[in-house]
Amino acid sequence: MTVDRAVTVLARAYTGSEWSALAEAALSVARPAGYYAPLHVSELLYAPPAPAAGSPYINDDFAWLELRNAGAAPLALDGVRFASGISHTFGPVALGPGARLVLAKNPAAFAERHTGVGITPEAWQSGNLARKGETLALVDPDGSNILTFTYSNTWYPETYDTGRSLVAVDAAAPEPLWSRADNWRPSRVATGTPGLPDAALFTAARLDAGGVLQLDALGVEGSVELWFSDDLATWLPCSVEAWSLNGGRLSIDLRHPAMPAGPRGFFQIRLR
Prior knowledge:
The chain is mainly β. The longest helix is centred in the middle third of the chain and has 7 residues, at 107-113. The chain has 2 domains: 39-186, Immunoglobulin-like, CATH 2.60.40.1260; 201-271. It has 1 helix and 23 strands. It is globular and about 90 Å long. β13 and β14 (145-150) form a beta hairpin.
C-alpha cells in the first residue's frame, strides 16, 4: 500500500479461528525541507461591500481568499491549515504548478457575486477575515510556519467596503515584506479575480534610437505570446527572437529581421 497523505490505519490479524485485538497507527508523509515554500496567499477580499436590500447574506459572507502554488511541481495540501485569522484544515487536495485555490466564507454568496468565473470555492471552516486587518498564519501538517503576515485596511482605502481585493505583488518576497503595503496592491478588477491572475498592466511605452519599443509590464503571470497584425483582422505570432519580457519590461525590436515589414502594425499580448 502506498501512503501519499496522512492516514490512520486500523488493522487486526486473523489466526486460526480468532481475530487479534484492533491495532491503530497514524501514518504521515515526510516532506522535504522547503516543500511548501511556493505556497502563498495571492489575493484576499477582506472587506466586501454589503449586498442589496433583501439579500439573505451579510457583507462578511462575500469574503474570500486565494492560494497559489508558485512552484514547478504539484503540492499536496492534506493537513495544511490556517492557524490564525480564519480556521481551516485542507483535506486530500493537490494544487498543481501555477494553480490557484479559492477559500470562501460562504460559497453560495460567492457564487451570487462572481457569476461566470467557472470555479467552485471551498468553504473555510470557521472565522472571518477581519475588516480592519489581522494576522493570517498558514502552517504545514506538523504546525511549522509556511507564511505568516498581517494585512491592514489602512494600506489602500480603495479596498475597504468597495469590492476591490488585495493582490500580492511578489510571491518570492521575504516574509517580513508580506506585512507591508509594498508587497500588496489593490486589484485592477472591481470585484477581484478569484481563481485567476489579476489583469496585467502595460504602461510607459517608449521607442529608443535603436528601434526597440519598450513598455513597463506589471502583474504578468504565466506564459506570454506576442502577436502582430497590420489590419486588425489577421494575426500572426511574433518570433521570440524579436522580443523579450524580463524584469517587468517588455521589449520589441521593430527592426529585427523576423518582424513583419510595413508602414504600420498592431501588437497583441496574449497571456496563457
